[in-house]
Amino acid sequence: MSDVRAVPTPDRNDENFWTAASALVEPPWSEPAQDDTFTMDESVHDAARALAERISTRVLAYRAADKPLDPVLMASPDVQLALLRALYEAKQSVERLAESAATVAGRSGANYAQLGAAWGGIKRQSARLKWPHAVVRQPASESIPFHYAGGTAVVHHDADADAWWYTATAADGQDTESEPVHRTYAEAIAGATEYLLAHSLPGRKTPA
What we know:
alpha+beta; 4-stranded antiparallel beta sheet; globular
């Protein structure tokens, strides 16, 4: 991986902040180590197990009877089926988050070859088929939603003002609409994500 010290790190109040933030760093990431993938497996399993315990008929029966659930019962076939159902929901969450990340990256300058490389090395054509709205050849006039911190935002382009603005509905149910004052799509995305984070639900874990 290239020397990270060569990557510019201006503060938010620096006049070059948005120019630096919009410039794609190469390489964008380093390959995860085996320990990283094991940690990811554990995190996904913890999240899926928590959902499985909320939907499992057996677990709910023990709770209704006000009895503790012996951990060995997690190996019961029906509880494992509930876990499998929860893992399917985790897969759906990954697909939604991947579409959001691909859209933000593509609208901010990444191409389909780069999106495909990030998504396990799929070909450019496959990435285009998977996320057909992610990359545009000119400033986007089409409004594409993205999800963050339990909320949803849509970034729009105002052709008359040649500026960007956003609408957002946060996890706590609050809505907002910005003025068309953002100079770039990336700047509008940042404003929208700040709003969604500020209005996320207590206890929700948010990506760094």
